[in-house]
Design brief:
The protein is an alpha/beta fold. The chain has 11 helices and 18 strands. The longest helix is centred in the last third of the chain and has 20 residues. This is FAD/NAD(P)-binding domain-containing protein.
Length: 414
């Protein structure tokens, strides 16, 4: 068997932005390495374009298009595989276990498990039908409501409030945010003031420096109940028929505990979201697992790196580094070493790899179908009509769903 035809198993866990990008690039690599098999594992049957949630919430036709089948990532006749299951634990440098009990061998592993995003953007449902039902139920609640309260003034909260207000102009929409300004603090003040002004143009009441006392249940995302009352830390009371949570971020990373035991070190943050520690190359921060990468929201890169398009870029970086390792025969050398001693992985020479560089500081925030704010290269277009034009042209139409459909090009195959 020639070196290029050796068996190589690459497993990607999580098929959202980082995972989808990694899968696409790695599957294409099998043209040069026919023995390469890519396995995608995800707990859902379909990818949901979470970035487009604000539009999906008010547009049933768009919501239907925002779900794409993971099975459509691979040609039906290819050796690549999609497994609809959930990761239970990573056992060691070559094996992982799924909640079904199935064990999978890997030469390279990409953990793209992401995080539980704020509120209903983290659509609950294992299948497309279940996801659509959850969105439809919330939409029906909004349609019958008189008052809607959106909690959280990040991009998700601003976009959701904007689309609800624009689609239901006779509803009373209130956005409450705990900070002094809207949107992430790494962006310019003009972006925040522009967002507030444009929300108010749509009739949204924006309340800043107020923290809503939400139920302790971490799964609480959106609640439909006529006349429900929530209290702010200021003592003010907010009465609404629908409450949409757009704050909070949870990372599930307990599946790396076996690796922490082997490495005899912590591989995750101690408090808050338990982000997984990575090297600049996106490898797990332990020289005992150089073949394990963490891309996307689950890693401990700064929050400024936790956007969909940046997760895609990280997936691309992880895939490029795996390609470099394959070209150098690293998987063969690692398997030979660890067959003798698990700790020998640290002695296997790793080729020079690319480091993740966050060099893009940009954001597009649609506020309903016609308004929006934008920033790129430190230039903000917050209050300007030019921002409305750019955001409409670049994002509002389908929230860039068209860019992702190429990952699922076999979705119509029998």
């Amino acid at each position: 068997m020639s070196d290029s035809t050796r068996s190589i198993s690459v497993v990607v866990v999580g098929g959202s932005y980082a995972g989808a990008a990694a899968v696409k690039k790695l599957a294409d690599l099998s043209k040069s390495y026919p023995g390469l098999k890519v396995t995608l594992v995800d707990k859902c049957t379909h990818y949901f374009h979470a970035v487009g949630f604000p539009k999906a919430l008010v547009d049933a036709k768009y919501a239907d298009k925002a779900f794409l089948p993971f099975a459509g990532m691979f040609h039906p006749s290819s050796k690549h595989e999609f497994i609809n299951d959930k990761l239970a634990k990573v056992i060691d440098a070559h094996h992982l276990e799924l909640t079904s009990g199935r064990t999978i061998y890997y030469d390279y592993l990409v953990l793209a498990t992401g995080g539980q995003a704020p509120g209903p953007i983290n659509v609950v449902g294992k299948t497309k039908d279940e996801g659509l039902a959850a969105i439809s139920e919330l939409r029906a609640g909004i349609e019958s409501a008189g008052a809607i309260l959106v909690v959280g003034g990040g991009a998700v909260g601003v976009e959701t409030a904007g689309f609800v207000a624009a689609s239901y102009p006779n509803k009373r929409v209130t956005l409450v945010h705990s900070g002094e300004r809207l949107l992430p603090g790494n962006f310019r003040e003009g972006l925040a003031s522009g967002a507030k002004e444009k929300l108010e143009q749509l009739g949204v009441q924006v309340v800043l420096n107020e923290r809503i006392e939400l139920p302790k249940d971490s799964a609480y995302a959106a609640h439909v109940e006529t006349g429900q009352m929530l209290r702010g830390t200021s003592g003010s009371e907010y009465i609404a028929d629908v409450v949409i949570k757009a704050v909070g971020f949870i990372v599930h990373s307990e599946f790396v505990e076996p690796l922490e035991e082997i490495a005899r070190k912590k591989l995750r943050a101690d408090a808050g979201p338990r982000f997984i520690h990575v090297l600049p190359t996106l490898q797990l921060a332990s020289n005992m697992f150089p073949n394990v990468f963490v891309a996307g929201d689950a890693n401990d890169l700064p929050m400024s790196a936790k956007y969909g398009f940046k997760a895609e870029m990280q997936g691309g970086t992880a895939a490029a580094n795996i390609r470099r390792m394959i070209e150098c025969g690293f998987d063969r050398d690692l398997a030979n070493a660890t067959n003798v001693d698990a700790e020998a992985a640290a002695d296997v020479a790793v080729p020079p790899l690319s480091k993740w560089t966050d060099y893009v500081d940009a954001i597009l925030v649609p506020i309903g179908p016609d308004l929006g704010v934008a920033q790129a290269l430190k230039i903000d277009l917050g209050c300007t009509g030019l921002a409305n034009f750019f955001v409409r042209q670049l994002k509002t139409r389908d929230f860039m769903l068209w860019l992702r459909k190429g990952y699922f090009k076999y979705r119509h195959a029998k």
